Amino acid sequence: MKIAIVGTGYVGLVTGACFAEMGMEIYCVDVDKLKIENLKKGIIPIFEPGLEDMVCRNAQAGRLKFTTDLKECINDVEVIFSAVGTPPGEDGSADLKYVLEVAREVGRSMNRYLLIVTKSTVPVGTAQKVKQAIQEELDKRKLPVEFDIASNPEFLKEGAAIKDFMSPDRVVVGVESERAEKVMSKLYRPFLLNNFRVIFMDVPSAEMTKYAANAMLATRISFMNDIANLCEIVGADVNMVRKGIGSDARIGSHFLYPGCGYGGSCFPKDVKALIHTARENRYAMRILQAVEDVNEDQKNILFHKLEKHFEGEIKGKRVALWGLAFKPETDDMREAPSLALIEKLLARGCQVATYDPVAMEEAKRLYGDNIHYAQNIYETVVDADALIVVTEWKEFRLPSWQVVKKLMTTPLILDGRNIYDFKELEENGFAYHCIGR
Hints:
With 437 residues, the chain is α/β, with parallel strands linked by helices. It has helices spanning 10-21, 33-40, 51-60, 97-109, 126-141, 161-166, 178-188, 203-234, 238-246, 267-280, 286-298, 301-309, 337-347, 360-367, 377-380, 401-407, 422-427, and strands at 2-6, 25-29, 64-67, 79-82, 114-118, 147-151, 170-175, 197-201, 318-322, 351-355, 372-373, 386-389, 412-415, 431-433. The strands form 2 sheets. The chain has an 8-stranded mixed sheet, with helices on both faces. It has a 6-stranded parallel sheet with strand order 11-10-9-12-13-14. Helix 4 (97-109) packs parallel to helix 5 (126-141).
């Protein structure tokens, strides 16, 4: 089976590599010439465990090809996946210009039946706009070619994307015709050996499912952050509360970890987009608006704890940050809590030293020489007045506290992910603050 995937970002590249791994012939298409040339050389534009090996292996086997020209392969494939970006506008809406440009290019170039599948996260009704854009181009050419549209939203977790794709909880597919359902069934048949479910539904429901899933997960995070903040006020321990409610089968334990806010490419953007979609349809998503408000406040909680500890006198303080990415196992800093923290620290005249296992290059692109980039966790804390843990990378879990204390000017730790034992740190002479305790 031959497939074209337009867009070689996070979703497109993982999708292409995983389909190729299952023996399909994949064309990955992108307008970015440098990115395509680098991919041909085995240079991967994102960090994702296992992805580089999978891309190189399938490219060498001839199953994974890279091109800047969709016309080169469009009439040689059965399915086209659109996995281009949908950046958020200032009002929270999803920008569909790249999605619709792909649709128009398909309409200008196709000569036989194709199934066009939207993989990008898009608002409800986007597939119909894609269908209209393709049909308009075919009408200009006076070419009576049949085609179908489908929605196949991704549910990939950064840092575990390959596992999620190869062994997913479910695959959601929205279709309009029996023919499209047969093509998608054929496409996912090799994965059925892993006993997961392919759930077919109408296209608008598939589009909504993606947003609803991310909105629910974001809601659980903001809910627990709200509970954590109240726990601090009343003297409760949020870790005990989390265990207590997580053991309820109706609730479960996933996404009940308090922290310094969620970030990334999905939750912030998708929550905003769903709020915007509701507003366009004259409906207020009151719970989701609160979810977003809580999260924006939570991104500032570590800064406020730092201010409180030093009674507002933080100008000139040297602050060490462990972690920059919005979560472990990725170099993605989009909407990361570290961004809000760094901006506030710099604005108040603090010196900032940072370390992250994989996100340093992205930080350099964003901040240049305004912050210091350390080679390891210990260099970060040299002469530091405070250490703030922002991302829960595994290598941060068991440092030598004796070394850390010796290197720091002030033995203060602000733990934004609750990964340390406060008794152990207090016994080692640190002032320790975390979330919800």
